Each structure stands twice: as structure tokens, then as C-alpha cells.
Amino acid sequence: MHASAVKISDVKYIGLRGTYISKNSIDFRCSKTIPCTNIVLDDIDIKPAVLHVDPNHYNNLGSVSVRCINAYGIVQDFSNPTLNYCLN
User: Fold this and answer.
1) Residue 22: pLDDT over 60
2) Fewer Cβ in 10 A, N or C end of the chain?
């Protein structure tokens, strides 16, 4: 069986606004063999959504997780959540 991958590069997220309902509001999980490259995150502002569900289902939702695995690029301007360590 051969593994397959899609190369993702030269993607820009600019002026992204909105809300999230999961802990992984930003999740770049790219291949170690073919990483994501030249990703630009610029002026990102996403916040937790107000939920009317069982609070135990979304334990501590305000503490967002940002995951960047094998993703490379730059973070420009203010970003919420903080993305300074992402895309290294």
C-alpha cells in the first residue's frame, strides 16, 4: 500500500473573523514527508461561541488549543488566539 499526500502551499488566511465551538480552533496537521509551506496568518480574530449546551461537554472551552504540525509560514499582525509559536 502506498501512502499519498497533497502538497499545500502558498495559502493566506487574512482578516479571518468568527467563533469556534471546539478546543482546536486552528488545526494544521500536515505531513512530515510533505509539509505545508508558505502559510500566512494575518489579522486573525476568533473567539469561543456562546453555547447553550451541557457545559461538561465543552470543558473549559475558553482555553483554546492551536495545533500546527509540520506547517511552516508566518504570522502577521495581531492574532487571537495567539499564534506566535505556530508555523515555525
Assistant:
1) yes
2) N
